[in-house]
Each structure stands twice: as C-alpha cells, then as structure tokens.
Design goal:
The protein is mostly helical. It has one domain (8-248). It is 73% helix and 0% strand. The protein is globular, with a radius of gyration of 19 Å.
Length: 252
C-alpha cells in the first residue's frame, strides 16, 4: 500500500492521537508527579514546617515541587520520547516516510514538541494545584524559573535523544532508560535531599544533570538565584546530548 503523504498539521494531529492512545505515558508524566506532590505535601507534616537544612524554607514550597517537576521531565525524556522514536525506527516508519514529502525529521520535531508541551502542562498543573491545595506560592522569580525549566528540559531531552540514537530496539531503550533514570533521580535529591548528602556525594550530584537541575529548581522556587555552576553543568550536558544525538541518530 503506498505511503500517504501527510502535511505537517495532519502529522501533528496523528501523533497527538497516537500519544493519547497510551494513557500510561500521560499518567507517569502528568498524573503521578501531581498526585505525589499533593499526597506527600498533605500527609507529611514535616514538609510544611520550616527546615533548618534548607535555609528555613518549607520543603513543600521548594524541594518537593522541584523534585516532582524533575520526575515529570525525566520520565518524558528518558522513557516516553525515546521509546516512541525507537519503535518508529524499529517498525520502519521513519524509513518509509523518507519516500514522502514529509521527512523523518518532521516526526522527531513533532515528538519533541508534544513531549515538551506535556512537560509544561505537568509543571503548570503542579504549580496551580499546589498553590490551591497546599498554599505553595507561585514562583516570584518567574523568569529565572522559566529559564531553569527550559535549560533543564533541553538538557534531559538532549540526553534522551542520545539514548534513542544508540538503542538498538525498544526493549533495550526501555530497560536502559529506566536503569539510568532511577540513579539520576537519586542524584537529583529525590530520596535523599542534597543538603543531607555526604560532601563527596553532593559533589557528584553537582556535576550530574539531574543534581544541577534539581538544585537550580529548588533555588529559584525558594527565591534564590541558581548557581552558575549548576547552569554551566546543565549547558554542558545539553551540548553533549545534542551533539551525540545528532551524530549517532539513525533513521533506519
């Protein structure tokens, strides 16, 4: 059956429909982080008390939403997006599209846009419901927050694209993505807040993409300027991921 050439708008609509047919993707990227934020913030009184090791800030205002935003973006970048791209390559979708007016790069672009929108939506919902239910203040340093969010997202998405570039099949990309994601969440401070880490582990965290991103998010949510070190680390990881993905990505 001849391939049907799709204009970009139709391609975008098709990709959105395919994304919505996988409710687990939206659940882990949007619903789960939001639910964890609201449940943990409401159920653990210590999260609503000023913490000395966090400069007197309430963890529910800074650390907890920062970690949930990190979890959402990391899930999209290391699971949802790479799996979709590798499955398309595995099934020959990208190769067949190369014979139509719509090039394979269009699929990559649409996938990036859709997953970026999902990350923005998840973050917006966490900020809105966190404010309404837990009285978490909105970021007063909004431009700094937006800048950190964009840089951190580009960093994790770049690494995720590099993962999709080298993974031979969907089983490998799913298992490797999960295997990398959980150590990165740990280094980001998900289970052990960075102020409680031993000095050597905090240094390792500083130079990891999630440690730098998580701390920068926590800083701007607490009305502090992000560290130049963490911004530089994210920029370096973003460059490495994008260069690796560009060099090694295979369409078939």
């Amino acid at each position: 059956m001849p391939a049907i050439a799709l204009v970009p708008r139709r391609l975008a609509i098709t990709e959105i429909k395919l994304y919505l047919r996988e409710p687990l993707a939206a659940f882990f990227a949007v619903v789960l982080p939001l639910a964890l934020l609201l449940i943990l913030g409401a159920a653990i009184p210590a999260f609503r008390e000023p913490a000395a090791d966090m400069g007197g800030a309430r963890p529910v205002d800074t650390h907890l939403p920062g970690m949930m935003i990190l979890l959402s973006i990391l899930t999209v970048a290391f699971s949802t997006m790479p799996s979709a791209l590798v499955i398309y390559r595995e099934r020959g979708v990208l190769r067949r599209m190369s014979t139509t007016p719509v090039r394979p790069i269009s699929v990559l672009t649409v996938q990036l846009v859709i997953n970026a929108v999902v990350s923005i939506l998840a973050t917006a919902l966490m900020l809105i419901f966190g404010h309404l239910i837990l009285e978490i203040p909105y970021p007063s340093m909004f431009l700094a927050f937006a800048g950190v969010f964009v840089l951190g997202s580009v960093t994790l998405f770049g690494i995720g694209l590099a993962l999709a570039a080298v993974a031979p099949n969907s089983r490998v990309v799913q298992s490797v993505g999960a295997g990398i994601m959980f150590p990165l969440l740990f280094l980001g401070g998900m289970w052990l807040p960075r102020p409680l880490m031993p000095e050597w582990l905090r240094v390792v965290s500083d130079y990891s993409p999630t440690g730098a991103f998580g701390q920068a998010l926590t800083d701007v949510l607490g009305n502090h300027a992000p560290s130049p070190l963490h911004l530089g680390v994210m920029a370096c990881w973003a460059a490495v991921g994008i260069v690796a993905a560009t060099r090694w990505f295979r369409w078939e």
